[in-house]
Design brief:
This protein has 466 residues and is α/β, with parallel strands linked by helices. Among the domains are: 21-74; 87-160 and 435-464, 2-Layer Sandwich (Nucleotidyltransferase, domain 5); 165-176 and 336-427, no CATH class. It has 22 helices and 7 strands. The protein has a 5-stranded mixed β-sheet with strand order 5-4-3-6-7, with helices on both faces. The protein has a two-stranded antiparallel sheet with strand order 1-2. Strand 3 and strand 4 form a beta hairpin. The radius of gyration is 32 Å and the shape is extended. The protein starts with 6 loop residues before the first strand and ends with a helix. The relative contact order is 0.11.
C-alpha cells in the first residue's frame, strides 16, 4: 500500500512561508532529515557498535553518516526508568584499570542495569540507596566500601555476600599457606634419598643456590642479604616504612621479607620455580630409559600430550642425561602451589586415587597443611551446600583462631567483621552471578569505545544497550 503525502502551496502574498508538507504518522516528523525508521536503525547500530565501528558498517551499506552523528543519537535517547528495585546487585568495574573505578547497580529480578555510579566510594553508594528506600536485598562482593555504604544508606536491607567470592578468598588464603610451606612440595612423594631436593640445611646454601661453577647465584645472594638487612632493622625497632625508605624498596617487598621468619621460605620460591616441562619429567624419563634420546622426537610426543614449550627446554632438561647423570628411579610428580591448592579446594570425592594419596602424604609430612586442609574443606562444604547452620560459622572462626595458620586467621577476621553478609551467603540462594555477567558486558563496550569516550557516554551505553 503506497503512502501519499500532500504538498500545500499558500497563495497569500503577505505570508513568508509559501509551501507546506503534510506529515505522515510513524514515518516522518517535523524538521527531520531522516525517516523514523532510518533513525531507529542508526540508533540501534550505535548502541551495538559505537561511533567509529557503526560508521564503517553504514559506509559498507551505502548509508551516509559519521561517528559524531551516531554518538549524538545515543546522547539524545532518554534514560530508562528503573522503577522500584527491591533486590539489588552491586559491583565495581574498571574505567581505567588500576586507577579509576565505577560502580554498576543491577536489578536482580530482571538482570538489567539500573544505574552506573562514577566511583566506588561508600558515600556515593549510600546516597543512591537513600533515594531508593524500597531496597531489601543487596548482593555484593566482600568489598568494605559497599558494606559501609549499604549500612549507612539502607540499614533496613539484608546484605548477602557472594558465595563465589567466599570460595575465592578461601582459595587465596590456602594458596598463601601452601606457598609458605613450598619446601615440602619440593620433596619427593616417596622417600628416595637419591631424589631428595637440596633444601639448604641450617641456613647454608644448597645446590639450587649455586650455578654450574659452584658459585652462589646472584638472586640467592641478594635474597639472603636483604632478609638479613630487614630483620636486623626490625630487631632494633625500625618501622617497615622507614626500612623501605632506607633500603629503597617497595612496602610490599619489605612486608614479604618481614613475614618470612627464615630465608629458606623466600629461597624456595625464588629458585625452584615451576616450568612448562614439570608435568612431563616422568614421561621423558621413561622414554629415555626405553632408548629414545632424540630431543625433537620427544618434544613432538609431549606436545601431543599438551606440552606448550619448545625443543630447547627439552634439550636443557635432557642435558644431564647425556652427561651420564641419570636418576636410578623415575622422578616423582612435580607439585606446585596451584596444583595442591586445587586438590584442597575440590570436593574430596572428585579427586583421583593418585591425587588423594599425594595430598594425604603431604598432610602426614606437614601438620600445618593437614590442619589447613581440614579447615578449608569445612568452610567449602558450608558454602557449596549452604550448610550455614546456627553458630556453625562462629565455631569455624573460633577454631581457626585457636590453631589455624595466620592466612586463615586473617580470612576469619574479615568474615567476622562481615558476619551478617557471610551468614546470609551460607543460608540463602542469592548470588551475584547476574552482576558479574553485566561487568563482562561492560568490558566489551569499553573495548568498542577504545577508551576515548567520556563517562556519560559509557553510562548511556551500559543502561541503553540491549
Amino acid at each position: 500500500m503506497a503512502l501519499i503525502s500532500c504538498r500545500l502551496k499558500l497563495e497569500r502574498a503577505h505570508c513568508v512561508r509559501r509551501t507546506f508538507a503534510e506529515q505522515i504518522p510513524a514515518l516522518t516528523r517535523r524538521h527531520a532529515r531522516r525517516t523514523n525508521a532510518l533513525t531507529a536503525q542508526l540508533t540501534d547500530v550505535a548502541l551495538f557498535l559505537g561511533g567509529r565501528p557503526g560508521a564503517r558498517l553504514f559506509q559498507r551499506m551505502a548509508i551516509g553518516t559519521c561517528k559524531d552523528t551516531l554518538l549524538r543519537l545515543i546522547r539524545t535517547l532518554p534514560l530508562p526508568s528503573s522503577g522500584p528495585v527491591p533486590h539489588l546487585g552491586v559491583d565495581e568495574f574498571a574505567v581505567r584499570r588500576g586507577r579509576t573505578y565505577a560502580t554498576i547497580l543491577i536489578d536482580m529480578a530482571t538482570h538489567r542495569p539500573v544505574d552506573v555510579l562514577a566511583d566506588r566510594a561508600a558515600a556515593t553508594f549510600a546516597s543512591w540507596l537513600r533515594d531508593h528506600p524500597e531496597v531489601r536485598i543487596i548482593c555484593r562482593d566482600r568489598a568494605g566500601s559497599y558494606r559501609d555504604g549499604a549500612q549507612a544508606g539502607a540499614p533496613q536491607a539484608r546484605q548477602v555476600a557472594d558465595a563465589w567470592y567466599l570460595l575465592n578468598n578461601l582459595a587465596q588464603a590456602v594458596e598463601r599457606v601452601i606457598g609458605r610451606h613450598r619446601a615440602d612440595l619440593r620433596q619427593p612423594l616417596t622417600s628416595h634419598d637419591d631424589q631428595a631436593e637440596d633444601v639448604p640445611p641450617h641456613g647454608g646454601p644448597g645446590r639450587g643456590e649455586l650455578d654450574i661453577h659452584g658459585r652462589p647465584r646472584p638472586l640467592a645472594a641478594r635474597t639472603r642479604e636483604r632478609h638479613q638487612q630487614i630483620h636486623e632493622r626490625i630487631a632494633r625497632g625500625d618501622s617497615l616504612r622507614a626500612i623501605a625508605r632506607e633500603l629503597q624498596l617497595s612496602r610490599g617487598t619489605v612486608n614479604r621479607f618481614a613475614r618470612a621468619a627464615e630465608v629458606d621460605e623466600l629461597l624456595i620460591a625464588a629458585i625452584h620455580r615451576p616450568t612448562l616441562i614439570d608435568d612431563y619429567r616422568l614421561y621423558l624419563h621413561h622414554r629415555w630409559m626405553e632408548g629414545c634420546t632424540n630431543a625433537s622426537a620427544l618434544t613432538r610426543e609431549i606436545q601431543r600430550l599438551g606440552y606448550r614449550g619448545d625443543v630447547n627446554t627439552v634439550r636443557r632438561h635432557l642435558k644431564p642425561y647425556r652427561n651420564g647423570i641419570i636418576p636410578a628411579t623415575a622422578p616423582s610428580p612435580h607439585l606446585t602451589v596451584r596444583r595442591v591448592t586445587d586438590w584442597i579446594m575440590r570436593r574430596p570425592e572428585h579427586l583421583t586415587d593418585v591425587e588423594r594419596k599425594s595430598l594425604d602424604e603431604l598432610c602426614e609430612r606437614n601438620p600445618a597443611l593437614a590442619m589447613t586442609v581440614e579447615y578449608a574443606r569445612r568452610l567449602a562444604l558450608m558454602v557449596r551446600d549452604r550448610r550455614g547452620e546456627h553458630l556453625a560459622l562462629d565455631v569455624w572462626i573460633a577454631d581457626v583462631h585457636l590453631d589455624g595458620q595466620r592466612e586463615l586467621r586473617t580470612l576469619a577476621n574479615g568474615m567476622r567483621r562481615d558476619r551478617a553478609a557471610v551468614q546470609a551467603a551460607l543460608t540463602t540462594a542469592y548470588t551475584s552471578g547476574a552482576v558479574e555477567g553485566n561487568v563482562t558486558r561492560i568490558k566489551l563496550l569499553k573495548r568498542q569505545m577504545y577508551g576515548r569516550a567520556n563517562f556519560d557516554l559509557l553510562r548511556r551505553r551500559i543502561l541503553l544497550s540491549p
